[in-house]
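Support reply, case 0932

Customer input (verbatim):
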Amino acid sequence: MSKQVIIKSGLRQIMERRVEVKMKVTQTKIPGLLIIEPDVFRDERGYFFESFNQKRYQKAGLLEEFVQDNQSQSQKNTLRGLHYQVGENAQGKLVRVIHGRIRDVAVDIRFGSPTFGMHEAVELSSDNFLQLWIPKGFAHGFSAFEENTIVEYKCTGFYSSQNERGILYNDPDLSIDWKVKNPLVSEKDRNNSLFKDIAKDFFYK
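Our regenerated output:
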């Protein structure tokens, strides 16, 4: 590579860094639950975006520290959830899709909340780049619409088998439409608790 080409490449990288990065944050009907749309830069090479920037996300209200990143791969019609952790291992989650498309669901399990028992369902995909911020006090799950769907989420708490809990995905009191027929569900998730039986682990502040 010639010196001239190297210089031009370097100048282009500098110009790219000068572009102001923005993101759109939308409050859902459930307080604290946020939909985040990052600014995506596209050109003939493909695309680039910041999937996380601590300063920018803190300005949006995400003040907690992330300590663990998880990634899962799911086949079409897979359904995972509803999951949460309690105590000192309670987790806030920032969820996004690297490949494929999902219906991401968060259920408010904060006792005393005006939206207790309500849920929000958001389509996240590798095409729309949307992220869902789920604070502590929510049960989380998703259904996969495409083969080899890859989901990545940042967590504010470490995984703890002793503190993990679950709510039955098809609980009649929740009436969640997962948009999949004959979902693939693990035996563990088929044996999750009913919503009416969950302990008072979280309270609305």
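We compared this against your earlier run and they match. Two observations from our side: Residues 21-197 form a domain with the Jelly Rolls fold (CATH 2.60.120.10). The helical segments are 3-18, 54-59, 187-190. Please reopen the case if you see a mismatch on your end.
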